[in-house]
Amino acid sequence: xxxxxxxxxxxxxxxxxxxxxxxxxxxxxxxxxxxxxxxxxxxxxxxxxxxxxxxxxxxxxxxxxxxxxxxxxxxxxxxxxxxxxxxxxxxxxxxxxxxxxxxxxxxxxxxxxxxxxxxxxxxxxxxxxxxxxxxxxxxxxxxxxxxxxxxxxxxxxxxxxxxxxxxxxxxxxxxxxxxxxxxxxxxxxxxxxxxxxxxxxxxxxxxxxxxxxxxxxxxxxxxxxxxxxxxxxxxxxxxxxxxxxxxxxxxxxxxxxxxxxxxxxxxxxxxxxxxxxxxxxxxxxxxxxxxxxxxxxxxxxxxxxxxxxxxxxxxxxxxxxxxxxxxxxxxxxxxxxxxxxxxxxxxxxxxxxxxxxxxxxxxxxxxxxxxxxxxxxxxxxxxxxxxxxxxxxxxxxxxxxxxxxxxxxxxxxxxxxxxxxxxxxxxxxxxxxxxxxxxxxxxxxxxxxxxxxxxxxxxxxxxxxxxxxxxxxxxxxxxxxxxxxxxxxxxxxxxxxxxxxxxxxxxxxxxxxxxxxxxxx
Length: 521
Prior knowledge:
Layout (H helix, E strand, L loop, with lengths): L10 E2 H5 L7 E4 L5 E2 L1 E4 L13 E5 L8 H13 L4 E5 L9 H10 L3 E4 L5 H34 L4 H13 L2 E5 L8 E2 L8 H12 L6 E6 L2 E10 L3 E9 L5 H19 L9 H9 L11 H4 L25 E8 L18 E3 L9 E6 L3 H13 L2 E5 L8 H18 L3 E2 L13 H12 L7 H15 L4 H8 L3 H15 L6 H13 L2
């Protein structure tokens, strides 16, 4: 696990000074302040335009010569929270003015000498490089921490595993206090056995009805973060995380994800689930999961071994610019014939559960990491070989998974109607997203009338009508598709017109019947 405690938004001054390519000299040392950026300014009132934390670079063009004015200048920088002052020697000054050195020392402002060989642009670029390196390091650490948390979620005992993973990721101790007094408290290495009166008081406040969800306190040398997890108020526990160093930005992101995952695991404790991914999937697709927890999707949505996964990067949601895409699969067993049990389907993901609104009993839905359309088409054919008809949404960002689920549900209605798997693509009708699959079933049945009956005769007429409409009324091609004589097709179409009381020469009638056939549940 990478080292903890870095902060993407600043870099220690000592790191900048240590760069040999700059040749900076520390003239006045005053701690190791965090530097947020490097900016050059010759304004005497530069402090009015700064936000704090900057390495301010100046050649002293407008530096006052009066000692009192120099004192005022340095004091304004200190009040503005400037991280350090970098003074460029030559061409204006051959050395740093003594008054400036003295005032920086008296007021505790770090002062650097910038040699002539290092342009201010080079110093600014170097600070930017260090910030970017720390940012990339934090992104790698965040990704690795989320992967570890995701693996813990799919472990045999995820509630026991998650605190240990969180402690390792943050370099901290973790205590999970359960809601039930007869359940043992879970502690990681280094955690205190006695939480002390202040922490116990906070525990009481957090678990009280309408109490706060989180709190922070000092306990001995440690800063302790507390957060409720589980179902309030009867089954609400508290997770405590403590360490001497404050949590950085990345640390807080990891903590948010871990508490969200612990929360949903404790809420679903006792429910029968073949995999811990079931409650997570339901919360994702219902739009009820804490947004911070979706970062753990990548590991859960692809169960292939790391060395067998595609070397190419995952498809991104280019129109939204928000990273890795995910697809939602809806599948239902074929109405006739044998099919593999839902729990044994090769879905390639831990994020799976029963489809709540599929009319066909035993339907499933799942979240898949996007692997590109060719791979997903092969996967849909694999499911069909197991006796399942599937429909797959377009690749979407994690926060849009509820919409992806609606699209997949709509597409599954059409897939079942034609008996073919369907993959959402650019050619898919966008109006389908406006139609609730449950809502289209009733009008489809009304339009079909007697053709909607579950009888062999009605099935034959539906199949014939679908083939004839798909061939734009061509008798010979429809007959070839059905494997019957063209006169049989003519007879059946005539019977459909009589039974429904419609004229199929009317394009409006044909359109309505096509809609009904392709959206019939």
